[in-house]
Amino acid sequence: MAVIVCGLMICVLDSTMLNLALPQMARQWQIDPSYTLWVVNANQIASLVLLLPLAALGDRLGYKRVYLWGMLVFGLASIMAALAPSLPWLIAARALQGMGMAGALSVNGALVRQIYPRGMLGQGMALNSMVVALSTVMGPVLAALVLSQLNWRWLFSLHLPLALWVCWLGMQALPKPRQGSDARGLSWWDVGLNVVMFGSIFLALDRVSHSQGGQGLQWAALWLGIGLIAGVFYVRRQKRETQPMLPLDLLRIPVFALSMGASISAFSAQTIAFLAVPFLLIETHGVSIGRAGLLISAWPLALAVVAPMVGRKIGRIPAGRLGAMGMSLFAAGLCALALLPVGAAACDIAWRLALCGAGFAMFQSPNNHTIVTTAPVHRSGAASGMLGSARHTGQGLGAVCLAGAFVLWPGTEGVAEQRAMWLAVAFAVLAACFSGLRYTPVAAASKN
How many domains does the chain have? Predict the structure, then answer.
């Protein structure tokens, strides 16, 4: 678990640190700041399109191999990023980093399932959630400390030694591939269709989120059309497979399908809220940037505190009940933020954000546990890949919804942010409904 925790922390820190460095990059290369967004987008696209193929490869060749190769590629790509002489070089290095990150994240849940005893698996999932929350808090803080004294290139400097350490320790500590692993490779046609489908849909959502006054929607429609056409061929090919890369067969399991729907809805709500809160505090309520950052940290800190406590309850309380309660608390916190009075005190803001974090923690670990354990053991990699895909899908949908709110209500102080919060409440309530519909009795959960 030290290997899993350290690898997860490296990936999350890398994702959360770089946003603060984009203005410095734009100044150094004297380019439009909008072009630097591809430093982030390239990483996200590469990670998204390879999650399912690498998860399927993990089911065939062993999760340990995929994880260690992913961490090695991530570390080497970090050196390329640190030495990048131009923006295109940096974008290519970030895409390679995303490929390595996909290798580590695609089999993360499957490895946790292999490592933990059945009765303690919920605690392992909760530990993952806690690490992600703490890393989310630490990322911007570490980036600010580094960038205040050094160049943005130093943000990548520690990745290689840490990744090499994870690989060295992982070779000794991670569980060996189970006997009877299928040594077959993957169909390049299926990998290509997966890349085109998810990549095109991501680009379509990106175009929608950056469109103004209807401009750019034609490109969004084009990318969406390409993604849908590729998806039709992809799904037809996958239906003939006994162990498909796109695990549609797992969606035939009602509990798994409901958990996936809950995950997508919950991450949509979280993304809308987490992106809208800075605008709400700074632009609408006049909170300073530094103070807003401290207040927002109440959200992931509450998640980090509550997640371990919830982990110990998984298997004792039905996961569907925990998830529904968590999303109900989350929705209540979002409602409180949407109704935040002007001139509210810091403690009045902090408890609302902490309530959101605590509610999400109560939902996330049980829901992840259900997704990973509902699938057969030999399909743990596919379930882990679907878990990551649900997170990416929800985050993309949430970002588009927030952008749509700003397009529909431009120039109206606080209105777009407030209505975006109400949309987040709707997504949270939907996630609570999905969770409540699941039937996961304690006895069945303990057997998994």
Answer: 3
Cα separation, 294 vs 39, in Å, equals 26
- Reported as a single tens digit per residue, the pLDDT across 356-398 is 999 998 998 888 888 888 888 878 888 888 888 888 888 878 8
Kindly state the average pLDDT of the residues 226-248. Answer: 85
| CA–CA distances in Å: residue 201 to residues 230, 280, 291, 354 | 10, 29, 37, 33
Q: Strand, helix or coil at 155? A: helix
CATH number of the domain within which 85 lies: 1.20.1250.20
Can you tell me the mean pLDDT for 196-200? 88
DSSP 8-state code for residue 20: G
Tell me, yes or no, whether 266 and 377 share the same domain.
Answer: yes
Phi-psi region of 180 (alpha: psi -120 to 50; beta: other; left: phi over 0): left
**Tell me: the pLDDT tens digits for 101-114?**
999 988 888 888 88
Distance from C-alpha of 254 to C-alpha of 170, rounded to nearest angstrom: 35
Q: State how far the Cα of 419 lies from the Cα of 404, in Å rounded to an integer.
A: 11
Assigned domain for 182 exists: no
